[in-house]
Specification:
This protein has five helices and no strands. It is elongated and about 55 Å long. The chain has 119 residues and is mostly helical. The chain starts with a helix and ends in a 14-residue tail after the last helix.
């Protein structure tokens, strides 16, 4: 195991894996399946799916600002073909890993010349 795998508890990894699977599945449904069986972007089933995905993601990962533009983008016809849920979960995971690594290293870490260190 690498140092990064030790920083993220198993329950957190499970939650992010579940959230990523859900977001990829929801985006795949909206891109590939719903346009064939529903009225397209104006489908109530599409909106219900977005509400359910938003609720489950908030339940799994907590509230993150990334979910708000993802939800808004999913409601706009045509724009909802972008995998916003997947991008939002990936961004939340990236920030969470970065925060966990920063917390572990702490402020006592030495800065290598040319490396940026936030204050």
């Amino acid at each position: 195991m690498t140092i990064r795998e030790h920083l993220i508890p198993a329950s957190g990894r499970w939650r992010f894996q579940s959230a990523m699977i859900l977001s990829v599945a929801a985006d795949a449904l909206q891109i590939f399946v719903f346009p064939f069986f529903a009225e397209g972007a104006l489908s109530p089933a599409d909106d219900i799916l977005d509400l359910a995905v938003a609720a489950v993601l908030v339940r799994l990962l907590g509230w993150h600002w990334e979910f708000l533009p993802a939800f808004a983008g999913e409601l706009v016809p045509g724009v909802d073909l972008v995998p916003f849920w997947t991008l939002a979960v990936a961004n939340v995971y990236r920030k969470w890993k970065q925060a966990a690594l920063t917390e572990e290293i702490g402020d006592n870490a030495q800065v290598i010349e040319g490396e940026y260190k936030s204050s």
